[in-house]
From TrEMBL:
Residues 321-336 have a biased composition (Basic and acidic residues). Its main location: membrane. Residues 290-299 have a biased composition (Low complexity). This is Rhodopsin domain-containing protein. Residues 300-313 have a biased composition (Polar residues). Residues 45-281 form the Rhodopsin domain. One of its GO terms (cellular component) is membrane. The chain crosses the membrane at residues 26-49, 144-169, 189-208, 220-242, 254-276.
Amino acid sequence: MDFTHFARALPPCQPDIPEDVANRRMFAWITTTLVLVLAVVSYGARIWARKKSYQPLKWDDFLMGLGLLITFEPAICEYLLMANGLGHHVCNVPADQRQRFLHITFALQRANQPALLCIKLSILAFYMRLFPSKRFGYFVWANVAYTIIWAVVSWVVNLTVCSPIAYYYDKTIKGGTCRNQVISGTANGAFSLLGDVFILALPLPIIWGLQVNMRRRIALIGIFLLGTLSCVSSAIRIAALVNFTPLDGTYSQVYASGWTFMEMGFAVIGGNLPLLKPLFESFFRLSTGSTNKSKSNSSFPTNGSLSGPNVSGKSRKFTSSKRDHLDADGFERISDDGSAGNTQPNSIRDIELGDRTILVKKDVTITTDPARPEHEKEFVNRIQSFRH
């Protein structure tokens, strides 16, 4: 490949500064490796959480897995770029490595939109499962449409930035031209960031309106705001693209390609973390068990699951807890009015458990015998252990 036109377009060749080259290459290596490992671990934990709660994999799990699989392509390309001059000024890179660098960069850019499309659709599918509200579903489907349109249009625009397409990596083609890659890349990143903000903000009004205490409400919002990592990466990527110089891509592409991969990796991580609650159920039970136990020793639980004691020997009513309408991931399904659980006034509640359904009676009447308080207490304790 002839690169003589690069020499005419660029200022005089700049010598590489060893410390600068080392820092750029270290940034590329550390960020790619660390984010890739965290993304794989978070998805593995997600699958483990499914198995721990005896749940089959669902559409959001498959879409996230496909998105993670696609992110391996830019990760591999990033390592190949480091082996072919990444971090050096282009004039200091051998001609054969420059040629390979352009081919690898072209391949790297093909995976960005497909990976983010799968990841974003996975998050939206999870929203639809968690918030089965028809009104909320309209907003979710609007985001689905926006995400698909963005992915298709930006992928085509990115592919055809040079005409003919092969001119991107083969500048010897006569009559070939390229549009401004900085403008097209920045526009693509801006529309992607806008979609991220839409997805991130979608469940927040419902969560804020939940009929739960403020501490739990803030905790839930914090879990869903983990997606801001991807938004921040996308914003930094846009800033890095502004400083990108196509004619010196081996040097100026370091941060642009690095933050591009981190945007995908953090999107995977942020989409997986809210689903890991089943892995920490034992810890949460231990942290709250002592309080519940102290209450049960004197007056039995009074947190909505059991009524106070009736020492006269008459009937005592025990009602089901909020666990009856918990999703398999540990979240409560949200109704149209912002309240948790089933909105129908039946005493029978459906619990989703994979492809099986358990019918749970909401009201249970237990007649106690004052002559045998120890037996009664043992029976109540068994009910408590079943519920928890």
